[in-house]
TrEMBL record:
It comes from the Bacteria. InterPro entries: ASHA1/2-like_C, START-like_dom_sf. Belongs to the AHA1 family. SUPFAM superfamilies: Bet v1-like. Gene3D superfamilies: 3.30.530.20. It comes from Chitinophaga pollutisoli. This is SRPBCC domain-containing protein.
Amino acid sequence: MYNIEQTQYVKAPADKIFDALTTKEGLFEIWTEKLIVKPEVGFINEFDFDDNYATRFKVLVMDRPERIRWECVESDQEWVGTFLSFDIEQREKTTAVTLKHSNWRELTEFYRACNYNWGWFLYSLKLYCEMGKGIPYQRRQF
């Protein structure tokens, strides 16, 4: 199995980052403007990226403010059965956010594209938490 792992440093408190990654308001600004989410273990969050299918993640863990973990239950077949986690570590002047997208079955072109796009996601998170405005999918310039 293969994993994508990236870390971003954000000048914001861990609680603010946790809220950004678990609420409709935060994920709307960070990831996609088309979503149905609830910060609740067991809920299935739904994200739409205009690609003719929904991406759904079941919320497995919400340990405020340190950890969030989701399981992909519907999406592109390469994502189904993968896990997405966010480890949030408050430090003296910044907060480290480590994103892990784990359990990929193989290294593919899509895996590599997702690796790049997770970097965008973390940059959008940083902008939102530090400046109040992120760059969700619909506002990105491709």
